[in-house]
Amino acid sequence: MQETDAPIVLDKGSEDPAPRVSPRLGIIGGGQLAKMTAMAGIRLGCEVVVLEREGQCPAASLASQMLVGDWNSVEALTDLAARVDLVTLENEFIDAESLEALEATGALLLPAARTLRLIQDKLKQKQVLAEAGLPVPRFRDAPDKEAVRAAGEAFGWPLLLKARRNAYDGKGNATVAAPGELDAAWDALTRGREKDALYVEEFVPFERELAMMITRGRDNATVAYPLVESIQRDHVCHIVKAPATVPEAVAAEATGIASRAAELVGCVGSMGVEMFLGGDGRVLINELAPRVHNSGHYTIEACDCSQFENHVRAVLGWPLGSTAMVAPAAVMINLLGRVTAPAIAPGLARALAVPGAHVHVYGKAMTRPGRKMGHVTALGATPEEAFRTAQSAADLIRFGELQ
Ligand code: ADP
């Protein structure tokens, strides 16, 4: 048993005695988002140090040092910061107090703890957006069931009951169709959570889900990627189509909203803005993610400068790259696990034989139902062509299944 929270440094060979010229980037979290950020950073000459709870994680093979420790431990975070020029992160769930304590040591953290504090409580996030006049679904705090019933009377049923914190891939959400379903949804979502853990939102009968990546530099320079359509399956992002086929006015409105949101929360780096397009043509913000995002994976092949490279450029204070697409259309399909098994992928070779399919495998040892294991991106002259190429490769890859 370790006596302190100091992370364990996995041996990556002896340190190079030559003077160091490359910037060192620390990443909190070692999943696929950290891996793709590291790939972009390494291409620009950076060294990457990763802090993650497990040594065997997607970004480990790229890290010049792999720290195994708890993200929420100030000691582990401080140890990471001492090894790098600046710290960034791949998820928004790291305890804001620990991040503030890290900043208090003089470490540079981007995006800053303040941004994370605003965003990681979804109720607070909605309040900040609404107060700034940005369009969000109607919402209310839900300290008790009575407050939910009152919201139902005001907004109508169904309602979305949501966990304020630590919710992802829809795991903290319940759709409550009628007052009679409230008890069960309340019990399911409050179990294991602290007091005042929920808030409630009107159900938005959206026509489509949209998303946009924004990258904001240390000097406030901001670039916006094309608006995309994201198609969810079981509350998990499944397909991203770029650009979204919406009227120009909708794209312009969404771009304005997303850029203002990034500025409002002071995000430095790449940030995902998830939105709903209502049947009435209105755009509402669903949620912000102050980090690189699944809806921006297509940018690796489809844009001049990817969301990952622009994130690295932004946090290092370098000029941001062009977000222009290099083809008329791109489609990204997530490769989600279906079974629990070691993550062998027998169809990979056949998928690689599909012309124009760009296959990404995250390198997770185990696959589980719904787990993000990789993705495929294809470009095309039309959205249909890009979709056909991506799908024909994605269909061939089934992690953990003998085929
Ligand atoms: P998570 O943060 O867990 O991904 P979200 O709050 O983004 O959860 O919700 C996941 C999905 O649930 C959304 O992509 C959307 O499909 C649906 N959803 C969320 N909020 C609403 C809402 N107010 N009305 C209708 N559908 C919603």
CATH class placement of the largest domain: Alpha Beta
Basic shape: globular
Percent strand: 25-35%
Distance between the termini: 42 Å
CATH-defined architecture of the largest domain:
2-Layer Sandwich
Number of helices: 12
The structural domain count equals 3
Structural class from helices and strands?
alpha+beta
The mean pLDDT is 94
Bound ligand species: adenosine-5'-diphosphate
Give a quick account of the main beta sheet: strands, pairing sense, barrel closure: 9 strands, antiparallel
Taking Cα atoms only, what radius of gyration do you get, to the nearest Å? 21 Å
- The parts where pLDDT drops under 50 for at least 5 residues are none
**CATH topology title of the largest domain:** D-amino Acid Aminotransferase, Chain A, domain 1
Fourth CATH level, the homologous superfamily of the largest domain: ATP-grasp fold, B domain
